[in-house]
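DOMAIN: structural biology
WANTED: fold as tokens
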Amino acid sequence: MSISSGTKINKLLQSWPSGAVGLSVWLEENDVPAPLQQYYRTSGWLEAVGQGAFKRTGDAVDWLGGLYAIQTQDHLDIHVGGRTALGMQGQGHYLELNAKVAQLFAPLKTNLPAWFKKHEWDVRPELHRTDFLPPNLGLVDVEHKLFTVKVSGAGRAAMECLYLAPEHFEIVEAFRVMEGLATLRPSTAQTLLEKCRSIKVKRLFLFMAEKAGHAWFKHLDTTKIDLGRGKRSLADGGVYVAKYQITVPKELANA
């Protein structure tokens, strides 16, 4: 190995967060072209995670290390959401439920890179493509190892749970999520509700927030929130809530 290539690998490793995946495009941006990438691999400095994706030899890399590369190197709007996001922010109940599945959200037509989908992670990535909220609204940075990843804040994560209900998320469980939003800022809730494109989500969010008795609810300006027209049934044989024109499960109405 030449002095030049040795200097490059040392510089590269200093800027490479432990536990994170490094993509070929990022390596090239750091003056490590494809032939040199292959040389570092055969020389034992790097190990392949998938096609065009590497880790430092001997480094322990998990799915969040892969997502970090997707967000910061591929620059794709894919983030952790739903109950997985809640679990990462200290709600242990949801972290336990989500131990084997990682809920990810992305705009329509956005796909996970092939190397990420093919790699055997310790969880199963579950991607939900939707445009019911703007891509970067309501996200927060959560630290993991020596880097951070974009994750839905509690308000957005709750809306993502509601978006998946009732087909992929129990409505009664979603209410338990909403009960945990006592400290949500009124301004945050207002912005999310005004930008949200899902009538179902907005009606459920308001109904559950009011039912939970959150103090911030009374500070919302519902005149600025489009709740659409017509009734929405979310449960067969449920209870109709006239104020929000939704039919919800009996166990939720009576909770």
In short: Residues 63-225 form one domain. DSSP finds twelve helices and eleven strands in the chain. The mean pLDDT is 93. Residues 19 and 60 are 6 Å apart (CA to CA).
